[in-house]
Amino acid sequence: MAQIILENARIFDGVSADCAEGMSVLVEGGTIREVADRSIKADGALRIDVAGKTLMPGLIDLHIHSYFSDLNAKVVDSRDAPYRTAHAVKKLGHALDCGFTTVRDIGGGDFSLASAIADGLIRGPRFFYAGKVLSMTGGHVDYRTPNEQHHTHGYCSCGSMNWGGVVVDGVDECIKAAREELRRGAHCIKITASGGVMSPSDPMWMNQFREDEIRAIVNECAERRTYVSAHCHPISAIRRSIEFGVRCIEHATLIDAETAVFVAERGAYVVPTMSVIFVSMEVGAKLGMAPESMAKLKIAADSAIEGLQHMRDAGVKVGYGTDLLGSTYDQQCREFTLRSEVFTPLEMLRQATSMGAEILMQEGRLGCVRPEAHADLIVVDGDPLKDIGLLAADGRKLDLIMRAGEIVKNRLN
Questions:
Q1: What digits encode the pLDDT tens for the residues 108-148?
Q2: Who's near 25: CB < 8 A, 6+ residues apart?
Q3: Dihedrals phi, psi of 9, to nearest 5 degrees
Q4: Secondary structure of residue 409 in the 3-state scheme
Q5: Which residues of 152-294 form beta strands (DSSP E)?
Q6: Over the stretch 187-201, which tens digit does the pLDDT of each residue have?
Q7: Within 10 A of 1 (CB to CB), how many other CB atoms are there?
Q8: In the predicted model, what is the mean pLDDT of the chain?
Q9: Which pLDDT value is given to residue 289?
Q10: CB 27 within 8 A of CB 405
Q11: DSSP per-residue string spanning 139-173
Q12: Which end of the chain is more exposed for a tag (fewer CB within 10 A), N or C?
């Protein structure tokens, strides 16, 4: 089995601000076998001199939608699977080139796409997915406009199901849908627990799903040894979701100081998504975003950065996510720049590595540089602990990208 040794590296391990220098890392078969403060002996190994640059875990984006090929969800539906897949290929390849060696598709990603990546048919990051999002009738992933009446329940190509979600009402339907997505290989289940920006018939302040419905979905995931993540904007949705057993909150855009303390005390996770808010504010109207969605987006933008500050002050466990839609996926690294208004480089590096692994329930395998971890690594030309802009440069400041032991990019030697 081929061996690669990365020598003379300065290692950021995903957690510590103290980076060990002069380190060597032995990679074999997609796995890190040894990390040492000396030269590693291995006959026949490919040796790469890192030249004292920063070797660190590959980045993790916890909130993407691979198939979301337009800012209008109904347009995405009408383009059908081949177009959505072509979009996913470009989006995932760009993510890998930016140093994201792992992504979590939190709505729409499926077993077929995961298999294509695993089999090398598509060039992309390590892929976790939540399957179809569960939404109640009139919820955030029910994309029918108010004048559309057609609705038939079940897993079919009708009004209750689209490329990204399935509409379910009542405990039995929630249980069945959760079980179906888990059967299809979903690594977690996502629900819409509040209104959203892109959906046409629900205000952002609206709480969604009853307590018994959410608890039923949470129970199904617990039995599968996984978790529920919930789309939430207002504080009421955040609070009730966590009270009912949800482990991770997506967005949390309207969070206040008191709710941030509540989230931290409960040990729940939050994945804010700044990029989608500010990028869509800039180009949404030009790219066809509906006026009602732009109005809701303005509400989110007015509170987003303040919400980050509340999370930081309360010590909330925060992961890195972007949620970029359509052609705006090329702004994925901008999330670092936006978060830098509140967080330090070290905090952001942890969010995009070790905390991402914790949220994915992959501690010790992802987001770290240690023996038996996946060999998902990047080499930064500079010190990202001092200059987070090195990671916001769309991969231009990365001299090496390694995914599962395979060298994707190498400018070192």
A1: 999 999 999 999 999 999 999 999 999 999 999 988 877 77
A2: 5, 6, 9, 11, 32, 34, 35, 36, 55, 369, 377
A3: -105, 150
A4: strand
A5: 165-167, 189-192, 228-232, 248-251, 269-271
A6: 999 999 999 988 777
A7: 8
A8: 94
A9: 81
A10: yes
A11: STT----TT------SSSSSTTB-SSEEE--SHHH
A12: N
User: Does residue 166 register a pLDDT over 80?
Assistant: yes
What residues pair up with 7 in beta bridges, in sequence order?
Answer: 49
3-state DSSP call for residue 47? strand
Domains for the chain: give ranges and CATH numbers: 3-58+365-410 (2.30.40.10), 59-332 (3.20.20.140)
Closest by alpha carbon to 85, among 57, 58, 55, 105?
105
Identify the CA nearest to 277 among candidates 307, 240, 313, 309.
307
Mean pLDDT, range 79-96, rounded to an integer? 96
Token pair for 123:
């060039």
- Please name the helix (run of DSSP H) or strand (run of DSSP E) that holds residue 379, with its range, or none: strand 377-380
Residue with the two structure tokens 């109904």: 74
Half-sphere exposure of 361 (CA within 13 A, CB side): 12
The 269-271 sheet, strands edge to edge: 165-167, 133-135, 189-192, 228-232, 248-251, 269-271, 317-318
Query: What phi and psi, each to the nearest 5 degrees, are found at residue 391?
Result: -90, -10
Rg (CA), the chain: 21
Yes or no: say if 112 and 82 are a contact pair by the CB < 8 Å rule.
no
pLDDT exceeds cutoff 90 at 159 = no
Taking alpha carbons only, the member of 269, 267, 271, 289 closest to residue 280 is 289
Length of the chain, in residues: 413
pLDDT of residue 78: 86
What is the CB-side half-sphere exposure of residue 109 using CA atoms within 13 A?
30
How far apart (Å, rounded) are the C-alpha atoms in residues 4 and 30? 10
Task: Count Cα neighbours of 91 within 13 Å in the Cβ-side half-sphere.
Answer: 30
Q: Give the span between the Cα atoms of 301 and 281, in whole angstroms.
A: 8
- pLDDT > 70 in the chain, percent: 97
